[in-house]
Amino acid sequence: MSLFSRKITPASSPSSPACVLQDAHHRREKNRRARPLFPGRRVAAACLVLRHPGRWSVLHLRLMYFRWQHVQRRLPVSGPRGGTEAGNRQTKMAEPGSSTMFLCTRWLALAVLLSFTARHSCSAAPLTIVEAGEARAVIVVQRDQPKATKAGEALQTYVAKMSGVRLPMVREGEAVDSNLKVQLLVGQTEAAKKSGVRFPSGYDTTIRPDIFEEEGYVLKTLGQRIAIGGNNDGPYNGTWYGVHALLEQLGCRWYFPGDWGEVVPHRETITVPDLAIESRPDFASRLVINSGWVPMSPDESAAYSEWISRIGMCPNPYPSVGDGFLAYLVPPNKYFDTNPEFFAMGEDGERHAGEHASLRFYENHTMLCLSNPDVFTESVKNLRATFAGENNIPHASPLGVGISPPDGMPYCYCPECKKMSLNLQYPRYFERTFQSEEFFGFAAKLAREFPDKFISTMAYSLREMVPLGVDIPENIMVLYAPIACDVLHPNDSHLWRRRDLVRALKAWRERTPHIVIYDYNPGLLIGNWVPERDTANMAVNMPIYKQIGIKGFQAEGRKAFMQTWISNYVRGKLLWDAGTDVDALQDDFYNTFFGPAAGPHVRAWWDACDAALLAEPIQVHEDFFINHIYDVAFVGRIRKHIDAALAAPASAVQRQRVAAAALIADHLLAFAEMNEAEKRLEYDAAAGAAGRMVELENRLHETYSFFIENGPGQQSFLFPTGRRKVFESLAAKTNGPDGELVAPLPLEMKFRRDRFNEGIVGSWFAPQLEEHDWGKKNTFYTWDQQDEPEDRVGHDYDGLGWYRSTFHVDPKFKDRPVKFWCGGAINEGWVWVNGQLAGHKRYSIWWAHNHAFELDVSHLIKAGQENQITIRVQNPSEIGGLWRRGFFWSPRQ
Description:
Elements: H1 17-27, H2 58-74, H3 85-93, H4 99-121, E1 127-131, E2 134-135, E3 137-141, H5 146-163, E4 169-171, E5 182-186, H6 190-194, E6 217-222, E7 225-230, H7 238-249, E8 253-254, E9 262-263, E10 270-272, E11 276-279, E12 285-290, H8 298-310, H9 332-335, H10 373-387, E13 400-402, H11 415-420, H12 436-449, E14 454-460, E15 476-481, H13 496-511, E16 515-517, E17 520-521, H14 534-548, E18 552-557, H15 561-564, H16 567-576, H17 582-593, H18 599-615, H19 632-647, H20 652-679, H21 683-703, H22 720-735, E19 739-744, E20 748-754, E21 775-778, H23 783-786, E22 799-808, E23 819-822, E24 825-826, E25 828-833, E26 836-841, E27 853-856, E28 866-875, E29 881-882, E30 886-891
Parallel strand pairs: 3-4, 3-5, 5-7, 12-18, 13-14, 14-15, 15-16, 16-18, 17-18
Antiparallel strand pairs: 1-2, 1-10, 6-7, 6-11, 8-9, 19-30, 20-21, 20-22, 22-28, 23-27, 23-30, 24-29, 25-26, 25-28
Helix pairs in contact: 2-4, 5-7, 14-16, 17-18, 18-19, 19-20, 20-21, 21-22
């Protein structure tokens, strides 16, 4: 089954499950994508492929076709009835219901019926390329075409893996063993061309809407030969994709990188069904890069690169663009000393350039002052020199150049730049004014200076939205990177975050056809490595992206397949064919990778995780805000699926894979237990659970290194290793060498929203405040994790909220220091103890993760009495509230 191929002419095939899936897939094929393999023949002349079925010869059917053509030529094209009697008679002959029309319709219907019958009864028999462990075919590769040679070697390798037989391989024109009756023609061979096969070809870089859409391949049976060729021009690798499509027809699969992730059936005899396939990808850019967040070894990088090409991926064909490319136009190490006004002004009124460990300045951390006309003039001068070969702006190419400000939220605070940005702030999940108008106004001017070059840009961070009042030239490419978007729900969701993403994407597409999405896989920020639902989301999203008309994807991936699972594999298939049946694709994976007995149970576990995330109305892209979904009760409930998989019959290799899936399930349970212990302030237990997560990650890494990286980079508090250290330090404060617990912050506190900012004026922090109209709120979860949305599209409450409670302090803490530690107040907080202001937790944006703070409240505590605490939380946008609870503690003297 080739799961990224399109079948134009149906052919006979074995009735294996894979072929059944293939047939179902091809029945859904969009005919508008097809073009004939043999151009110049009309569809009605299908008789040319028949092999004299019975007495109905090619001649009979051709006569029927020409009879129909003759009648067609006598039909009036348009105009009123009238004129001569003969003319009226001619017109009447072709009227609906007339005898001539009826007879011709019968003739044509009979021709079509016989064509269909003959096609299915007389398809070519499958060709045997290996029989009983003996070679029956030779691989003939196109001469002087390295891409064809590489593809031929891949075909040779995997046929040998399947059968133990290494098919001989020669270049076209070299002698072929006469005993080998079948020839596998790899590349755009002359033999295939002489047989009438028309291969996709060409690489035209003229700027136009359909640029980079020449890629594709053909699989065509030609008697005792099979043509396997595609477009190898420029960056294209059509023949490579064609070979792997053929290997998929034979049962080979590449679900994950390297040997561990592939399925190769063992067969002493290999037959290839009659083929007539032409396939072209739906998207020109099809890439998931590996992020430096989780590094790969050189061997892993090589295996990963080969794997993504096997599943149909390719690099982004547009000029490269990335964070910080903008300052390459005017490098600070050359210009800052003489022209500091070229560079961004900080809030302090001073001009700044990015710092670097070894260089004086670093372009990738440098923002330019884009309102300065001299910056534009110098940029144009430097670019002209680069395109003329007299300069060398990094990442520039004959196709163009990429420009983008540094990562984060860089901004120039000079009056002119602020004026250009229109003081717009939307969406509100970025804490600064947007700069789409400023940046894309500059990029548009630059693009007009070089109309035959692409200017690649990034719609990212403060530039995500379409600029107002800026015309985008046709040679602007936009890499759209919605970093803060919800990753729990697909694009057809009624929830506002995904809805607005689709709206923004459509708005960009109206401005330029050159849109590539830069998204993230895993999509959940940080790194607890818990299951995501990118596979299920992509099944919905990709047809929508195809309908919108984007050019494809350049996704940021990580070596975290225990979290992303088969989503990259599925993404590769959908990028080739947005109409791929993902449900069938998953059935194929689970049944072939784990075996038909265990596979459905492993799938049931992952499907349960998908369903739980989808059902939750919260819209987030952080794994630390889904701990109320993946709780102990849920994870325990779905464990039965893994237990059933472990008990199911399977081969030795399949059992190893099921065991790896069980480790992933164990890891999710440890995650849930870690959060449950933290919620109860049982930090020793939380540290133990985090330690189990690390241990399981190590075991998964040993099983298959692509599951997770367990090196020094995982020591940060963002990861389980770092979380364990945090919990150990909290345990030391509450019940260890560093301190003693004074009182826990209650898990549930009185709560009231402050929609109109009345709380401070109304002294809501006063100890004796009447609380009869206050509700209650959990202090471990944000209020977004607890409350129903404000409207049907899922907007949560944004604004002020107040928490109040009392706590008792033992007399023994009299005259001892007491501190208040809180897991977080998102995004900003103020604390009162016994009616007195204890301190302020400064603003930190909700996705920044570490919101913990600590205050010294020794002077406010009343030992031996009931004390009162009030916490005011401000959340201007998105996620808000108290988080991860807290406690009062006393340091040991």
